[in-house]
Amino acid sequence: MDESDADFKHSLIQLRKIVNTIDTFTNADPCVDFLNQTKNEKVFMIVSGALGQSTVPNIHHFPQLDSVYVFCRNKTKHEQWTKGWSKVKDVFTGIDLICDRLKQDTQQCDHDSVSINVTTREDLGNLDPSFMYTQLLKETVIEMQYDDKAKAALANFCRDQYHDNPHEKQIIDEFERDYDDHTPILWYTREGFIYKMLNPPIEC
Known about the structure:
This protein is mainly alpha-helical. It folds into two domains: 108 residues, Rossmann fold (3-Layer(aba) Sandwich); 77 residues, no CATH class. It contains ten helices and three strands. The N and C termini lie far apart (43 Å). The relative contact order is 0.11.
């Protein structure tokens, strides 16, 4: 892996649009150590065909490992061994194909990790939780008024969360600078840091 290579840089830019933190490894041992130390997050791993064939059997059982994407030039060569491992999503020959699948899988992971349980009195027990969520979100995003201090605090908090992600930092800068030029609903629906924080799919 040549980190000065233009294709590598392009790949990182594409991936950072989907996930916030990217860690790179050039051999298996530090990667396995990283997985062992990761406790409260889900890991999505992109691995070469040869390295994946030797590494996946040793890490597949880790609960923090959500998905594995095999990235290689010879898809046919590596498709056979991947069939025995359910966390291997597919063998890919292009980074854009991985990005498309990774985007779907991270959204599904968010969906699976968010649970809203509504406990109400008997007369409210049949209300759809997604309706209640929508009402709360509408109240928060559209109707409440915020001053510049609150906006700056949110922007600074998000910069800390996305400190290694220039794509998201650019959107955060736009949010802080241009917030009043657009409706709150535009910021809410624009794909970026606000959308990711406030709009995961809901599992009831």
